[in-house]
Design brief:
By secondary structure, the chain is α/β, with parallel strands linked by helices. It is 40% helix and 15% strand.
């Protein structure tokens, strides 16, 4: 410390206080304290704070009105889509003949144009059981039979392996407005017949729709408790249209666990054609995205063929391939095939398990020309 600090004013005051007697010092301190108190304002009165709930209540009311408005807006949107679907269906009924199933397509609730195809088929073969079974529907927001039940009032059984999806569906207005049964079940070849029987859909059926991204062929092959007028089965267009091939059966098959790209699943068009034709069904075409194949029971197919200029199988147009990181990478055409070239498939004609590449070529010239 510097010498200047030692001789500072505080030091001088301290020396002065030391020379006073203790009573004098005490009186001086009391006087200083009184002077300081006199100059200080009294502390504010402490009041208990009362929380005002009025803004919170107003906020609740606003959120409630917004929720109600959104509900009504979505309901009006659903009604508008349903109305537009019905208008499209009426327009279809005026067409004496169409080129292929693609010409009948429109989309209300289906993933692609299947709503229009199903509506057109119902117009051509009206004398069928007004019931359906569809599995692999996820939340049923996007499915082959949702427009059917809303537009034509059919009775239906839908199933999906996700319990939350089915629980949410059972809580929707659609569920009480229509005769719909929603069941959470992971579909296998071993349990499918029991599930259909248990819920009262065995026997005559209007439509059977299969879309489980995996064991589609094996599950369809196992079904023996229904007699559907129309069969819709998802196909894997990457497997082509020439060879009858499918993934090997595993009850716990999961598409993206089997191969990161998601391109290794299901069966080829030739596989499901061979199976359905052996059971008395006629192939009438695919949707224009090459995702679903349509079949009609032989005895009902006459009016359909009379109104159809061409039975057309389209290659897959979508690009849902994923990279190793799980993100969409939009691989298209033959590059999708190359991703799974070394994966094992069952060649059904010879019942051989072989790498996909050993079965090349997979595509007819016309199919290949649009798939590249």
């Amino acid at each position: 410390m510097s010498s200047g600090a030692v001789n500072g004013p505080l030091h001088r005051v301290a020396r002065l206080l030391m020379t006073w007697s203790p009573p004098l010092v005490r009186r001086w301190l009391i006087a200083v304290a009184a002077h300081v108190r006199g100059r200080m304002s009294p502390p504010p009165e402490i009041r208990e704070k009362v929380f005002d709930e009025r803004p919170l209540e107003i906020g609740r009311q606003i959120l409630g009105h917004q929720s109600m408005l959104m509900h009504h807006s979505l309901d009006r949107l659903d009604r508008s889509l349903l109305l537009q679907g019905r208008i499209a269906g009426r327009q279809l009924s005026t067409c004496e003949r169409i080129g292929s199933l693609a010409d009948a397509e429109f989309r209300v609730s289906s993933q692609f144009g299947d709503d229009g195809i199903i509506e057109w088929l119902c117009q051509k073969i009206p004398v069928v059981s007004r019931s359906f079974v569809e599995f692999g529907v996820e939340s049923f927001a996007e499915a082959n039979t949702r427009f059917l039940i809303e537009n034509r009032g059919w009775r239906g059984l839908v199933m999906d392996g996700n319990e939350e999806y089915m629980r949410d569906l059972r809580g929707q207005a659609l569920y009480w407005r229509h005769d719909l049964t929603a069941v959470a079940a992971f579909i296998t070849a071993e349990n499918i017949n029991a599930l259909i029987r248990e819920h009262g859909f065995a026997g005559e059926l209007g439509i059977l729709s299969i879309d489980i991204d995996g064991n589609d062929y094996w599950v369809l092959d196992a079904i023996d408790c229904v007699d559907p007028a129309i069969v819709i089965c998802e196909i894997n267009g990457v497997f082509g249209d020439l060879r009858a091939i499918t993934v090997p059966y595993r009850p716990d098959f999961q598409r993206f666990d089997a191969h990161y790209s998601g391109q290794y699943f299901g069966c080829s068009l030739a596989a499901v054609k061979t199976l359905c034709e052996s059971r008395g069904y006629s192939f009438i075409g695919t949707n224009s995205n090459g995702v679903n194949a349509f079949f009609v029971r032989h005895g009902l197919a006459g009016p359909v063929f009379d109104s159809l200029l061409e039975v057309r199988a389209w290659p897959p147009r979508h690009r849902d391939s994923r990279g190793i990181d799980g993100r969409l990478d939009f691989v298209r055409g033959l590059a999708r095939r190359d991703l799974i070239a070394d994966m094992p498939v069952v060649e059904l004609t010879s019942n051989r398990l072989v790498p996909l590449m050993e079965l090349y070529p997979l595509y007819s010239d016309r199919f290949l020309g649009e798939f590249r």
